[in-house]
Amino acid sequence: MTGEWLGELTLEGVALRQHAHPYPFEYDPYDHQLRLSELVGDDAGFVAVDDSPTGGGKTSAWLAPALDEQLDTIAIYPTNALVVDQADQVQRAAEATDHDIAVLTITSEHVARHRAEMARNVRSNAEVIDHLYRSERRANDQVLLLTNPDSFVMMARGLYGRESRVYRQIPFAVVDEFHQAGRKEQNTLRYLLDELWEWPDEEVALNRIAFLSATPDDRQEGLFADAMAAPYHRVTAGVTDERRPFFTDPGDEWHPVMPPIKLDVRTAPTFGTADVLLDDDRADLLSFCAGDRTARDGHDKVAIVLDGVHEVQRVHEYLADELDCRVERIDGFRGEEKARKLYEFDVLVSNAAVEVGVDFEIDRLLFAGHQKSSFLQRLGRLRSRPDVCRARCYVPRSVGACILNHDAVEGGPVTRRELDDVLATAFPEPRRPESFDWRYSGPEAGHHLEDRVESSRPGRREEVFHRGRRRIDRHFLDPFDGLTDDDLERAADTVDWQTLEQLQWYRGDSIQALVYDRTAGEEGTVRAYDIMYLLRYGRVSFHGRETFERIIPEAERATVDRLARYVDGFCTFDGTVETTAEGYGRSVSFTGPRLGKHLRGGERTPTVFGGLKIRVDSEAGMSGVNGVDRFNERLSTRSNRLGPAAGILGHAVPKRPTVVQQQYGLDDFFFLYPVVVQEGSACLALGTDALYLHCHEREADKERISDGDDLIGGVGDGGDWL
Q: 263 — phi, psi (to 5°)?
């Protein structure tokens, strides 16, 4: 694959004004921090968005008033890695206060470990969480609970065996990186937090909600302001003199949060940046990484942020062999000892695992920028310094040409606000299925409301029902002109009960295996990982559970005990296969008798499939996958482990993946998998993507919602909605 140098973009830095004002931490605060502190200190209650720039102290903005007011707080982070990273930062801040504070982390791993320690004293994970919170609350003046969205939703919906009571006792909730969530995930979190805010104070303490996010678009702004019951505040709204661009000196009382940057713009195809780096740009890559080794006392730090795990692995292996310095790798497959790696690295090769939240300092940045959001997030890794930094981005050719030929760019140095506008023009906006809100999020909330009504006291059930219906209308009906409650009920009637059950979880399902990486040396731990990477690129062998447990280190058997029920296979990993000249690995497709029936159906809707199997085809000279039949046997009987609602949520379309991508305007990060059936070419979307794809299909059919039209196009077996 070939790449091309297109030019250089000069980007100005960003500085925020500091104010000489008392603040719990040892620096003069920014305006957005003072505004959020004022809201938190007021008992009136609110929902707020802090959209201050990257590096602008959004964590301190909520943490300072939470400590000042001694408020128990639940902070929700998008990944477990970020929960752990932020727990260290929060703990350091807590230790500097004059009252006793417990920092409690709740993830599936933490809960499993504590449950094992409690042995037979608990019957569910919900009991473990409640016990941990009560114990810390008795011993301390304040508890800061850090968790991920999956765990929060499981607590709130009773998916931990029963409903955990912890979240009801916490007055302040913070959601970090909210803009990174997908449409389904945003709808779920926003709705549940709004529900908790509306509950009577004697039952639920929550009355303060803060989203730490990018600037909301018009749709998000409308939902925060109109759908949520709490008074809405955007803490940067109406402020014009608290942020300024700079190139050499931000000036007194101004603190740089993002540096000026000389950005080298080059081309590479999506998921092909590694090919360009290792073929066309190999000499430039080594030069960029070597750089000035006199900086930072010989520890000039460089970060390389790519898209695919396979790209990370290839570039890391090459640089580790070629450079006489410490080259580290962090991604979902090789993420152990992250704190040590981030402290010690000279060159870091990573992907989205370090895209958000995790704090570390670098001097130069090389990144793949194939989406607007990831472009901005990765560029934001350069932060909190006044001097000009070097960066290099690899983008599609059309995007790079648009960036460099934009009017704002040709006029000289570009501000960060201008860059947002440039990127909005340069990147084609992926189609967002707006009908998802009423087709699926509305029925999801209705199914949840059924459980709420059932679990309420008999005297309160009618109140809970009517308040819930009004809330569903606000979130999923009112934003669409012409839709009625009847339309929402008809939408729910087309969603089968298995899909409704899967919608209750925060994110869509995936197919994973427990993998033991035998190439990692001391890092060779057992983890659950997405099966597609393993099948496409890994030299993997699948085993039965008993054989797998004999192979792995004895210390890792607890991981197997904790995760075995939820994975579809057990495999060893012994490196990667040789790829084709185009950088492709093995071909992976799906097959199964129900896929053919689904494709033949006249009114195809997303289905929870049982009996699916995966087919793997290798190119000449490429090793096959040992034991894939053993994996397929376990995959096809998933419901035996997880119950009748289990299976794989999918939606098949009788067209090739590339045709579907083009027809519905989907980007390269919307994954479609080939299907092998007698009916001919077809593809399959999994999990939440299956629901999005169905919405794209119906919207493309120009489905009308005017009087007399058939809104849904058929009635399924979902039954009455409520």
A: -105, 115
What are the C-alpha distances in Å from 152 to residues 147, 166, 185, 214, 403?
7, 10, 12, 22, 40
Which residues of the chain does CATH 3.40.50.300 include? 5-12+247-426, 26-243
pLDDT value for 718: 32
Those residues whose C-beta lies under 8 Å from the C-beta of residue 115, and which sit 6 or more positions away, are 122, 125, 128
CATH of domain 26-243: 3.40.50.300
Task: Determine the Cα–Cα distance for residues 570 and 592; give it in Å rounded to an integer.
Answer: 21
User: What amino acid occupies position 655?
Assistant: K
Report how far residue 450's alpha carbon sits from residue 15's, in angstroms, rounded to the nearest whole number.
Answer: 49
* Residue 713 confidence (pLDDT): 36
Counted residue by residue, the chain has a size of 722
pLDDT tens digits, 368-381: 999 888 898 899 88
pLDDT at 717: 32
**Strand order through the sheet with 512-517:** 526-530, 512-517, 570-576, 538-543
Q: Angle formed by the axes of helices 80-95 and 58-69, to 10°?
A: 50
Half-sphere exposure of 209 (CA within 13 A, CB side): 24
- Phi-psi label, residue 242: left if phi above 0, alpha if psi -120 to 50, beta otherwise: alpha
Looking at residue 55, what DSSP letter applies? T
How many Å apart are CA 288 and CA 293, to the nearest integer?
11
Mean pLDDT on 43-63: 92
> Tens digit of pLDDT for each residue in 41-51?
988 899 999 99
Distance CA(276)–CA(391), nearest Å, equals 17
Q: Which CATH code for domain 5-12+247-426? A: 3.40.50.300
What single string gives the DSSP state of each residue in 439-499? IIIHHHHHHHHHHHHHHS-GGGHHHHHHHHHHHHHHHHTTTSTT--HHHHHHHHHTS-HHH
What CA dihedral angle connects 214, 217, 223 and 224, to 10 degrees?
A: 40
In our burial notation (b when 16+ CB lie closer than 10 A, e otherwise), range 94-112 reads: beeeeeebbbbbbbbebbb
Q: Is 571 helix (H, G, I), strand (E, B) or coil?
A: strand
